[in-house]
Amino acid sequence: MTPTELNQHFGTVSEGVRLDSEGGMYAYNYETEDYALTFYADERGGKTTDAIIQSKEHR
Questions:
Q1: pLDDT tens for residues 4-59?
Q2: CA 3 and chain centroid, separation
Q3: What residues does each domain of the chain span?
């Protein structure tokens, strides 16, 4: 999914932050009531390739 598509599902996304520690991938963070979601893309505005979903209860 692209950041635009993610916004339609999860609301406003953070700016894509380039992470040198992740091979230069861009991270997009969302917060819902129960979960913290992070999506990774190879380029800003590109389709996401990986996702991490964490329950806020277990953070």
A1: 777 777 666 666 677 776 677 888 888 878 888 888 888 777 777 788 888 887 65
A2: 8
A3: 3-58
pTM: 0.62
Rounded Cα–Cα distance for residues 8 and 59 (Å): 25
| CA 42 vs CA 11, 22, 24, 25, 56: distances in Å | 21, 10, 7, 5, 26
CB-based burial, 46-57: b 16+ in 10 Å, e otherwise: eebeeeeeeeee
Contacts of 32 (CB under 8 A, 6+ apart): 10
Q: Helix, strand, coil shares of the chain as percentages rounded to 5?
A: 25, 40, 35
Q: Which residue is it, tokens 């991270």?
A: 27
Distance from C-alpha of 35 to C-alpha of 51, rounded to nearest angstrom: 12
